[in-house]
Protein 1
Amino acid sequence: MKVYLEYAIRRVHCESCRGVKTEQMSWAEPSSNFTRSFE
C-alpha cells in the first residue's frame, strides 16, 4: 500500500532576528528513515 503525505511547513516571524524561519521537521529530513520504504 502506498501512502502519500502532504504537509505545508509553517513559516513564522522570529522576534529575536526579525526574520522569517521555517519549522524543523525531523521526519522530513533527507537522512530520515521515516520517508523511505519500510523493510
Protein 2
Amino acid sequence: MASELIKHVTDASFESDVLQPGSTVLVDYWAEWCGPCKMIAPILDDVSKAYEGKITITKMNVDENREIPAKFGIRGIPTLMIFKNGELVATKVGALAKPQLTAFIDQHVG
C-alpha cells in the first residue's frame, strides 16, 4: 500500500504540484508493468516518511501522462527527478537501493 505522503501527479497538476518556488519535489516516473518500478515503491514509501517536511515525493504514471515525460525526455523507467524551486536539479534512471536513494536526496535537501 502506497504511503499517504506520496502524491500522484498528472500532466495537468504537474506545474502546481511540482514547479512551486520554495519546494523540493522528487518525481518518480513509473508504470504498472515496470518490475523495477514495483521494487522501488516500498523504498519511496519509507523515504517519504523519513523526509516528511523536507521533500515531497510524487509519482507520475507515464502510461496515463504523456506530455510531461516527453517534455523531460523520459526514456527508461523508473526515472527519478528532483526539482528545487521549480528547476530540475538532478536525475537518476533505474531502481535505486535505499542507501542510494537517500544519498541522492541528501545531496539536494538541506
